[in-house]
Each structure stands twice: as C-alpha cells, then as structure tokens.
Amino acid sequence: MSSAPSRDRDARLAIAGVIALGVVLRLLVVRAQGFPTDVGTFEAWGERIAQVGPGGFYEPGYFSDYPPAYLYVLWLLGALFDGEILRLAVKAISIPADVVIAALAAAVAWRHAGRGPAVAAATLWSLQPGPIFAGPYWGQVDAVGTLPLVGALVAAGARRWSTAGALAALAALVKPQFGIALGVIVVAVAIDFVRDAAWRPAARVIGAAVATAYVIAAPFYGLDPLGVGSRLVDLVRSASETYPYTSLYAFNGWSIFFDFWQPDEALVRYGALLLVAGLVVSCAPLWWRRDLAGLLAATAFAAFAFYFLPTRAHERYLFPAFALLLPFAAARSRILGPYLVLAAGFATTLYFAFTRYQQIVDLRAPDLLEATLFGRYGQIALALLMIASAALIVWRLTRGEARLDSDRRYELALAAPRPTWTLPPGLGLGRVPSRGDLVVALCVALAVLATRGYRLDFPRDMYFDEVYHARTAFELLAQREPYEWTHPHLAKEIMALGILAFGDDRVIGHEVGLGAQTLFTVTNDGIRLTAGDDGNLYVRDRAGRGGPFARTTDPPRALAATDGRIVVATDRQVCQLAIPVPSSRTGLRDPLPFDRCLVSPFARTLGLAIGGTSVSLASAGGLATWKDFTGDPVVYQGDLVAATAKADGSEVYVLDPKGSVEVVDTTKGSVSRTLSGGGPGSAIAYALGANRVFVARAKEPVLDVYDLEGGSHEGVPLANARTGAFASGVTALAVVTRTQFLYALADGRVVVVETHGASPFAAIATGATQLGIDGEGDALVAAGPTGADVVETGRHAFAWRLPGVVFAALLAFCVVLLARRLFASGLVPALAGTAIVLDGSMFAQARIGMNDVYVGALIVAGWYFVVAAYRPRRSATTDILIAGVLLGLAAATKWAAFYAVAGVALASLAVTAYAYRRGRAGSGGALDLAGVPDVLARRGVGLAGLNAVLLFVAFAVIPVILYVGSYVPWFGGPTIPFHWDLVELTKQMYWYHSGLTAPHPAGSPWWSWPLVLKPVYWYFGSSSAGDNAYIYDAGNVVLFWGGLVAFGWCAVAAVRARSVALGFVLFAALVQYVAWIPITRVLFFYHFFTALPFYLLALAAALAFLWETGRARFVVGYIALAGAAFVYFYPFISAQPVAGAQAGMFFILPTWTYDCQFYPTFVCNVALGGSFSVGALALRLALALAVAGGLALLAVGIAPPLSERLRLRASSEARR
User: Fold this and answer.
1) Maximum separation of any 2 CA atoms in the chain, in Å
2) Is the bond into 1160 cis (omega within 30 degrees of 0)?
3) DSSP 765-777
4) Measuring CA to CA, which residue among 1030, 1035, 998 is closest to residue 1017?
5) CA 590 → CA 534, 548, 585, distances in Å?
6) 607: helix, coil or strand?
7) Cβ–Cβ contacts within 10 Å for residue 935, how many?
8) How many CB atoms lie within 10 A of CB 995?
9) If we measure between CA atoms, which residue out of 1158, 1004, 1080 comes closest to residue 28?
10) Where are the beta strands (DSSP E) in 157-267?
C-alpha cells in the first residue's frame, strides 16, 4: 500500500486536475455569444462606472438593479478593457470564483471527511454543467456572489464572527438573494445570545456587516449612513418589482399551477408569506446546532425557499444551494443521489430558460426536446422532479445526514492500474533517428514534392482563399495596405519571397522581323498580327514565319483578334477575316479578301473591344456593337477615349475624356451606371477574376481602379520601392486571361500588377510601345520599333504556391522523424509517410496559397523537438528552445498554433504532477517545471525550478517576441492596415473570426471532419471542349474512415498498455481538434488540418500493430486500397481535366454536393446528384485498382523480409 504522504499527494493532484479541467471547460465556452442582453448590460455598467465614477452611477433614470458590490468588479474591467475583450472578461469573471468555491469545498471536505470526499467535492463543482452554463456560457455572476456566501458560513463555523459578517454583507451586496447567509448567521448568533447570553458574536457579526455594507455603498450613495440604508432598501424594493410574474422560469409550484411569466398581482402576497415561513423553518434547526454543518444545511434550506416558495423567482435562484450542499454530497451517499438529480434538473432548466429567448440568443433546443421535455407536461414533470429531489435532501439532512464526516470508505488511488495489454515491441518507445531514418524521411519528403509539384501552376489564376492570402503577398511586395489582415502574415511573407525567387518577371526572348507597324495584337495561340499605315496586315507565328495576308483600303485604326478571326477597323468600316496559318503566307503577297465588312456609324475610330461573339467599335463619338458581327449595330452616343469589354460581351466599359467610366449595356446601347473618381485617362482594361476596371491616367503614373461589385474607386501609383519612379504615365494596358494579371506600359518599362489587390510589384525594362498576350505561350509580347520583347507571364501561381509545397514536404519529413522518435518500429514512420503522401487533404492543402500547411508543418516540427528533448542528440535545452522558436513562427502564421503552445503548457503540468506524485519532484525531464535545465545541471547548478524559467522563455517569451516581431515590417512602414496599432489589430482579428456566423455552403461542423462529410469546394473551371476541372479539399476516405477506428483503438491502447507514445499522439491531435468544438462560428473542413498529421500518425501506429500481430496482408491491402482511392479521386483534388459529364462519379456522398448545407440547419437532398456512364466509372475504377494491385504486389514481395527485419530491430532496441 502507498504511504499517507503519497496518498495526500495523489489527492492534491486529483483536486488540482479536476479544477484545471473545469477551468478548461469554462474557457472553451467563454467565447460563445452567451445571453447578449445580460452581458451587454454588464459591459455598459462597467464602461459607465469607469467614465462617471461610483458617485454618478445610480443617477435617476439610469437602469441598474444590482447593489454596489459587483459594480466594483465591473469598474475594474471597464477601466482596463473595451470591446470584445471586455465582453470576454465579463463572461469569464465567474471562472476564478468557481475555482475558489471548488477549492474551499474540497478543503472543508478534507478537514472533516478525508481525501476522497475532498476530491469528490472539487469534481462535483468543477464538472457540474449548471455552474458552467450559468457562468462563462450565459455570462451571469451567481458564482461571484456564492463565493462570499459560502466563505461567510465557513468563517461562522470556525467562530470567526467578524469575517463572517463582512463576507455575508459582501454577498448580500452582490445580489440581494445572497443575503440568506447573513440572515442565517444573524439568527445563529441571536440564538447564542438567547441561550448563552453571548453578546459578542452578535455584536461582531452585525458590526462587521454594517461597516462592510457602508464602506462598499458609501462611494455610490454618499456618506450619510441613513441615506445609504434607505437607498439600498429602495434598490431591493425596485428590483423585486421589476418582474411582477408568477415564475421567471423557476421550476416551482407556481410554474406548475400558473405557468411561467403570468401576472402575479393576486398571488404575490401569498408567495411572500410562504417565503417568510420557509425562511423561518429553514433557520429552526439552528436552535439545536450551530456548527458548520448546521449552518450550511440551514442556508441551503433558505436557498430552496427562495427558489420554490415565492413568485417572481428567477431560474438561477437555486444556484447557491449546490455550493452549500457540496460537502454533504461528497461525504454522505444518501445526499449524493438526490443532489445529482437536482443538479441535472437545474442545468436542464437553465438550458430551457436560455433557449426561450430565440430572438436574441444563438442556441436552439432540438425539436424532439421541445416536443417532449420542454412541452407543457414535460415542464410539469421536471418541476415535480426538482421539488421532490429538494424535499428528499431536506428530509435526509434533518434526519441525521447533516454531517460532514464520510459514511463510506474512499480508496483514492491515482496510480494507474498495471498494464493489461502488452503491445508488440515495435510500438515501444523509439530512438534518435539514424541515417537510414533520415533517408526514409527524405524519400517521403521528395515524394511529397514530386506529387504536389506536378502541375502546380494549374490553375494559373487565384482560387478560393488565395484571393486573400496570395493577394496579400503581392500587396506586401507593392507596399500596399494588406487586404488579408485577419491572420498573422508570416505565410504571406514567405509566399512573397517565393514570388521574388520564382516569379520570373523578366524578358525571356526577343523577336525581330515584325516589320514597321502601327497596330499590333497577339492571338491566344500565339499568332502575331500587325498592321501598317499602308493598310497591309501581317501574320507571323512565334518562330517568325509568315507574311502579309490582307489589305485595307484605308489606313487601319484598330486591330483585335479572337477565336481564329481578326477584326480590323478603319475610320469608315470594320472588317473580319479568318486568320490564315502563318506558314502558308510565307513569300506570298496577294491579299486575301475579308469575309465581311460593315460600315462604321462613326467618323473616327479609336479602338476595338471584343467580348464573346460581340464586336464593339469605339470612336470619339460613341460606341457601336455588333452581335455575331451581323446586322445593324447597337449604338451608344457619347464622348469617349478608350473602351474594353467584359468577357461575355454583355457590358462594355468606356472611358470618357473627364476620366469617368460609363458601363454600357450592349443590348440596349444605354449606360447602366457610371464609375467616377479618377482623372483623365489614356487606356482602359478589365480584369474578370478581380471584377475590376483599370484606367491609366494620361499625365501621371497612376492607375484608377474601379471595383465593379462594390463601386469603389482607388488611385494606385505605379511607383514603389520595387518598381521605381516614373517620369510619365501609362500608355498601354493588357490583362493576361489565364492569370488575370495586368501589364502596364509606362516610361520604358512593363509594370506587372496583381489585379485583386491592384498591386504593382515588378517592372521590366523594354523599348516597346504596344502590348499583346500570347495566352498559350504564357508570354506578354511587347512590340516596338526594333522588334518585340517576350516577357514570361505564367510563373506567378507556381511561385506563390511552391513555398507551400516545400512546407508540406517539411511536414512529411518531420512526421516521419517524429514517428521514429515515438515508436521502436521503423514501420510506423514508413506507414505515416505513406498516409501523408496518399491523403487528399494533405495533397490539396500543399498546393494552395493559404496558411494552413505552413502552420501545420511548424506545429509538427515544434512537437518533434519537444519529444526530442527527452532523448536529445546534444542538449535538451537546445531542443526546447528550438521548439519554442518553431511554435512562435507557427503562431506568427496562424492563431491555431497557440493551441499547440497551450498543449505544451498542459503537458508540462502533467509531467510535473506525475513526478511530484512519485515523490521525485524535478525528475520529469525537459518539461518538468521543478527540474533544472540540463546545461545548468552539467555545471553543477541544482536550484530546483529553473526549468520553469526555461519553459516560460521558450514557450511564452520567444513566441511573443516572434509574433510581435513579425509585424515590424507592417508597423514600421507604409503597410499598416487602416492605421491601427497592434492591439487594435488583434482585437479586430478576434472580432472578425468570432463574428463569422453567416451560413456558408462549404461549412461543416467539427464532428463531421473525421468522416469527411463535407469537403470544401475550392475551384471549378471549364473548357470549350466540355472538360471540367475541380479542386476540393477532400480527405482520402479510406484513410480518414480507417483513422477514426484507429484513433479509438489508440485511446484504449494508450490507457490499457500505459503507452506514452500513443498517449502523446492522441494528446497532440486532440489539442488541435478539441479547441474547435465550442466555437459557434461557421467552421470548415480545413480547420482539421493541424490535427491531421497526428490523426494519420495514430492510423500508422494501429496499422503497425496489425502488421506485427500477424496481419501484414490486411495492412498491405488497406494501403493499396488507400492508394486506389487517391488515384480515383486525383482529378477531384488536383484540377486535372475530366469530361464534364463524368464529374458526378466523384460525389460519393450526398453531403459532398455544394447544395448540401450544414449551416444554419442541415439541408440536403439525400439523392446523389449528377449522371455518368458506367463505362467511364469502370475505366476510372480499373485505373485505381491497377495502381492498388501494383502497390500490393510490391508490398507483398518485400513484406516477409521487411517484417522480419523490423521485428528483430524492434526487439533489439526494446532490450536496449
């Protein structure tokens, strides 16, 4: 048997553990909306008293029905915080009160009943749903008043009468109903005076209570004692008259016979008489006993009386009774049962009351619950149950159970039972990775680079949240205000470095032989078209082959080409001709006739704009649009300088001489709206992806940017640190269709502009005067008098995505090495690496310009060095500091990293507690707070607790320095968003994320993520040939569904086999996962990503168990099936084109369709949508199964020798 000191340590750790768990549960719900009216009122009171002080708070006409005591707390909060932080502080203020109540109840139970009841008391309060719901979730303050109430009774039980009187008065001044403690204590000392003529207790209680009440209330009501008393009485009377109804959701007799919220004019007197009678009866037992147990019991009876007997009782009036009954419930088995029933009923009634206010709260009771328990008969049944439970408690306490000694023997043994499972040697603790392990990790990383890097630049334009993150990377380069400020920006800075390193914004070739031309354009397939003043039209391919092919009768004024045809305009007509093969015109001089010519309705041509099948002719006098280049044009009359068309031709954007942009409806020839705010311009362009119009200022290097969706305007200078200064304005604009990047020709340079953020980020020297886009060649052709410069345009997507692929490879590398550190078998790292390579979510996240893969990789790397600190290559201190740096960098990428930092803190507390429990404080290794860092221990420094300093520096100081330091470029330069400071920015970031409550079709709740019920739709593209391309963030269903089983097995095995390695994997995954559970904002599947590496690691451990217990063939088959699933769904996650009619084969669950929604309520057509041919499905399955078969054959061939080799190695390492 363990010694008494050991059992004491176990009990203290258990108490601390359950209290800590209770705090965690409360912190998880404190971010919820709560009851907005109550929370908002407390916020307003706090801000008001901080502004006007206590003397001006209770001014006439201002609503406040609380006595002054709690206002001091709100005063402090209102002075320190505002906005969202104040809201959270108001909701969290009950948490420290709950902690002290649990600790106080445990201390009382320990003193009178022993260790076991003490642990039980702390557990009952910390994990009881009622206090959690009423306090940090709802936002109410009952725990704050209950604490001095209980403290007063404990002090009275110890005969500390002055303390008891002061605390009882304090409780009464938090809320009047908490004055029951003062009443009970006064009755107790009065009985002492009557029976024993002991006047000092009464004098001390009354004197301390009066003095305390005066000191608290005088700053609010003035120094006149009579005035203070009168004002307090008036406040209590006013509060009691605020709600003149039978029951304010208190489940008492009034609710049974008269229902809730019914006028009580005829009943209030009877309720008052019943209350007085009940309070008198509650105090009657004090005539016989006035010890602590008697005082607690009498006050609990009084709390019951306040809840069950009068009208106008609120739903929370029963709250203090549960704290008062804690020592009895923990020590007396005959009290525990009805206590638990009453506590469950109380929590249910709170939930009922809260969900009645549907107009202001965001919580809804399920329809089944509304129809049953919350129906009228269910309400009556619940009220009867609570009345019966309270009556049973009263009966048993008055019949001898009002005792604090325990009536049963507690055997408190925190030591875990001996292992009942024996895991294979390969699942024993791992070792320092060897050179061979590094090779395996490197091979997995290279596989990630190869599979994720293939076709990385498709699609070429931004998709999904790249329009936030990648866009901001360009804004940082252009020194613009960042659009995506809602996350820390380290990932975006890294993307910006990728753009600089791999964007390839340069001249990659020069073409000569274009001849003298006045007009120039390029077709999407790279054909160069030019026109001279003599009317000759020339066609050439990329190699320069070709020659003249047509001739206009008048000098050409505008040239455009699309879909294999050229359109040329003179001042009198517009002509169209099919573009010949360039090589066919080599050496030929005879012009081809035009297919069709139409008469221009205007005298002077300025340009052409082609959209869809429409051709628009821009002239100084207006715009003429031909649909399909036939018939009479739709004419718009007006002065204009330039024009550009929307891609479908439905709108043309014309620039007038004053700089305004008229949006012309081409079907009517009328202006649908006007965009203004810019200056006179010389050129105009439209970017479809950003849905913006860009106008080049005529006399200055500025772009006027018009957002078509919101109608906003912004003037964007081309000059910045990356592009340099400009002496003149822009003369030509061109938008690359595939990438949606804008190229502006100004002052001998081509300036590259990202259109979503209007960010000029690169400038390329050229002597060109005109621009053309070679779409299929990913090139900008900048033509000038001496030829044309060819500028690369297709590398930007690759550039901003490549760093994410590198971090995905780093993630895989670290997972493999982490698995080697954790497990003795080399099979676990190999399986974990294979799972990462074959998972669809890991694949998709690596290839998109978002921050999740960055934070995921840094979190895994941080945990690796935490684990490495327990078997360091050189120094555990170094490993801990590296881990702190990595987690700090992760926090500078996304706030989800702070979950990992909190996980390290929890792990440190657990390690310290385990070492303390064993009686060897400080022996818990690198995370033991009581230990000494190894670098100091080797130098003979033995001061215990220095490790706490190291851990604080590593996981608090360093992350904060890195996080704040990462913002130095923002706040030290012109990129500060909205002129905020870092504190305001952090507030706004939190507000933004907590306020994302609008429904989204791609959203999914946290419980659906392991089941892959709702992949996130990221991208859809279609081609004229009928092919579609998709990108969904979808996990490999074989791995995810198997992983759910494996995760459950790991949980059981970690406990039954006492496996530290399995326990760590579960802990690291849950740290990242559980934090999302209480969040009420709209969530998405990709929020699971930071937990996914550990989820797959758990799967690898379970598969290794099967392998080493003789089920290698099953493991081989499972991995082969996962490989088949990866191949089958590859087009679904990679944008590989597939026939549009066959897309339905990928939507294997109804919830995968975009129309199936989880928010605000689940709405889904259970029928699978889409149709596809059986042949196409068979072909897809055949390809997937062929790959699976190949993997299986390969694995079967190497399985026996590999299995034996791994078994022998694991056994050898286990012996070592």
Assistant:
1) 132
2) yes
3) E---SEEEEETTT
4) 1030
5) 15, 8, 9
6) strand
7) 14
8) 10
9) 1080
10) 247-248
- Taking alpha carbons only, the member of 1097, 1105, 1170 closest to residue 1132 is 1170
Q: Single out the residue of 581, 544, 646, 1123 nearest to residue 839, CA to CA.
A: 1123
**What is the predicted pLDDT for the residue at 418?**
58
Judging by DSSP bridges, how do beta strands 779-784 and 770-774 pair with one another? Answer: antiparallel
Residues 6+ apart with CB under 8 A from 910: none
Dihedral sign for Cα atoms in the order 522, 523, 529, 530: negative
Instruction: Grade residue 414 by pLDDT with cuts at 50, 70 and 90.
Output: very low
Mean pLDDT to the nearest integer, 1078-1099: 93
Phi, psi of 981 (to 5 degrees): -95, 175
Q: Could you give the CA distance from residue 229 to residue 218 in angstroms, rounded to a whole number? A: 10
The whole-number pLDDT of residue 1210 equals 46
Distances (CA, A) of 951 to 233, 532, 674, 715, 859: 54, 75, 61, 50, 17
Q: What is the mean pLDDT of residues 499-512?
A: 94
Chain centroid to CA 705: 32
What is the residue type of 227? G
Rounded distance between C-alpha atoms, residue 520 and residue 1191, angstroms: 54
The alpha carbon of 582 is separated from its chain's Cα centroid by a whole number of angstroms, namely 55
Half-sphere exposure of 358 toward its Cβ, with a 13 Å CA cutoff? 6
| Mean pLDDT value of segment 806-815 | 98
Closest Cα to residue 618, out of 630, 600, 633, 606? 606
Q: Which residue shows structure tokens 């360093």?
A: 958
Asked whether the beta carbons of 98 and 125 are under 8 A apart, the reply is: yes
What is the secondary structure of 478-520 as a DSSP string?
TT---S--SS-SHHHHHHHHHHHHH---SEEEEE----S-SEE
SS percent in the chain: helix, strand, coil, step 5: 55, 15, 30
Contact between 430 and 823 (Cβ < 8 Å): yes
Other residues' Cβ atoms within 10 Å of the Cβ of residue 377: 9
- The answer, yes or no, to whether the previous bond of 417 is cis (omega within 30 of 0) is no
% residues pLDDT > 70 (the chain): 95
Cβ atoms of 30 and 92 within 8 Å: the answer is yes
Residue with tokens 């500091």: 881
Yes or no: say if 121 and 102 are a contact pair by the CB < 8 Å rule.
Answer: yes
Pairing type for strands 642-645 and 596-599 reads unpaired
Contact residues for 1006 (Cβ-Cβ < 8 A; gap 6+): 1073, 1076, 1077, 1079, 1083, 1087, 1088
pLDDT of residue 551: 93
- Over residues 688-694, mean pLDDT: 95
